[in-house]
Prior knowledge:
homotrimer; alpha/beta
Amino acid sequence: MRPDILCEIAGDIATVTLFNPDKLNAVTAAMWQRLKAVMHELDDREDLRCVLIRGEGQAFAAGGDIEEFANLRDSFEQAQTYHGEWVAGALQSVVDCRHPTVALILGPCIGGGLEIAGQCDLRIAGESAKFGAPILKLGFTMAHTELVGLLALAGPAVALEILLEGRILCAREAYEKGLVTRVLPDAEAEAEAYATAHRIAAGAPLVARWHKQLVRRLAPATSPLAESEIRENFAYLDTEDYREGMKAFREKRMPRFSGR
Amino acid sequence: MRPDILCEIAGDIATVTLFNPDKLNAVTAAMWQRLKAVMHELDDREDLRCVLIRGEGQAFAAGGDIEEFANLRDSFEQAQTYHGEWVAGALQSVVDCRHPTVALILGPCIGGGLEIAGQCDLRIAGESAKFGAPILKLGFTMAHTELVGLLALAGPAVALEILLEGRILCAREAYEKGLVTRVLPDAEAEAEAYATAHRIAAGAPLVARWHKQLVRRLAPATSPLAESEIRENFAYLDTEDYREGMKAFREKRMPRFSGR
Amino acid sequence: MRPDILCEIAGDIATVTLFNPDKLNAVTAAMWQRLKAVMHELDDREDLRCVLIRGEGQAFAAGGDIEEFANLRDSFEQAQTYHGEWVAGALQSVVDCRHPTVALILGPCIGGGLEIAGQCDLRIAGESAKFGAPILKLGFTMAHTELVGLLALAGPAVALEILLEGRILCAREAYEKGLVTRVLPDAEAEAEAYATAHRIAAGAPLVARWHKQLVRRLAPATSPLAESEIRENFAYLDTEDYREGMKAFREKRMPRFSGR
């Protein structure tokens, strides 16, 4: 069974499933691109009123698929395609989807998984949910196009805690820090997520779309990054520590960083 | 007893009461206009140090008075007066009041009630307090001039939860999501709200005014909406779903929305 | 033992200690200037990976050293030096430090203490920690260069609560309102703060620096204050209430404010 984005529609609610069960639904480059395509298809449908995004089984998504990075994201140019087009395109397709989106989160919701869940409109978590982005151990920086979403959701203090400390937050802590909408026992989370989707679907759909659009429109803007700032965002690709971080990950050992 | 805004002054603390006890203090068009006038009068007084805003009895305010909408807010032009002048004028008069404002919240604090409480400087809630804006069931959108206040208080994720899901939040949940300053047993909430007003009144009044002004001044700005965006904000008035939502409300039944 | 900023380095972690134990580490003008110098020195060192900021003994810092104000901050010109150069310079040196910063907070973390802790990247608090800025009782306004940091950390509602009410928040309440990263029993807070510093130090240091810089870069901007607005920020210096507030503080009695 290949990694994929599954999509199922029941009545006016679509369920999008991150499907890569061998890797806790780690999101591959193909899955990022496919997520964008699926979300655009769903966006086009007039009959939908809510999209629920989840992972296969007992995980949301454990991150991006790190094993692909050596081939697909190893230079500034590759990173522009990988992050700037594929990941940013997928995240933007979640944001741009006219229909409200609900993330159902069980188990790991890490890195790219957190980025996807963070762009949904509501986040219903089971108690097993775990949140973080411990990329400081891998030696790379979060892409600016991804960090903006985390900042809009959680604010600078929580974003810095997650990125600088690299700790994994449990569901309760994630709730207390504003990362999720509500937390339930795992056995009840799926039912609550669909109940939420049905509450949304019972409302006037045009009103939902206008609210979604207007909340985004009223967000304060930051000045766009200059080309040099974008380059610096991917400067890690030329560091020894990035090589060491990726090597240590492959060798399943602690990295030894030198600051170079 | 007609719907009204009551105002009582004791020492250096004014109490403003939303008074429409037959309708859980639902705010009528006349009350919005009167709230603005009352707040301007209080703003002018040099002898005041704090304004406490509450509802009559065991409710803050259950919303705007929906029954008036058919006559007073049924076209884009009417909406410019109703929302753009009356509601926005009242909310701005709370924001602009030089004196610090404290909301005492018992029971329903919904829609227009939440908007008023959200523009106060502090919010003291009893455990009976309930928060929300379930207008998706009525088929209309929150006016942009009202949404900005909710966003400034609660951020985009909580605003979207409230608007897209239409659920009513209990006092504890509202506290956890930053909607209220603190929560107490109902029997203690009034005493705590006045104790808070007295703590404020014991401070240097000019300092309070400067702090209030400076916090507002340092808020990040969003670019003003274009005329076309303002028109879109009230486009619901031309939808079938708005008619259906209002009809269902009058007939006390669930609405059936078509997305048109 | 004179008030000072102590600095100790162990491996790749520096500990900066606010040292004024006779006054619960109240920050003197000399300490503000020295904090800036110390942070700049630490910023220059390539061998560091984290800076921990704490107070001597069982206090973080009880505020600025108010007794100095009569001599050092009594006119608009003095305030430009005291707040605009010394305090703002020290706070900016914490923000600008390339290395991640962790505040360890026990006991009072008030006024200037809260400002310093608020500019650190993470805040580990013991249960004895107390937070606030009750300057409304002293008759003066928080300097705009200091308020921006409190607003970025806690948002406008919490900032207004702190400034208008002047109440002291316990550690749990501060956590619930987003002022601190986590709270532990006092006996465990130091160990957790250093464990946090070690988690940070185990990550790739360049990545930490880039994350810190990018989070700041992506913060929404406010338009700079005009000269007249800056003057108004210090207009309290010409009020009777400021004289009364300072006098009451010296005489250890409640102030009687007139609003002039």
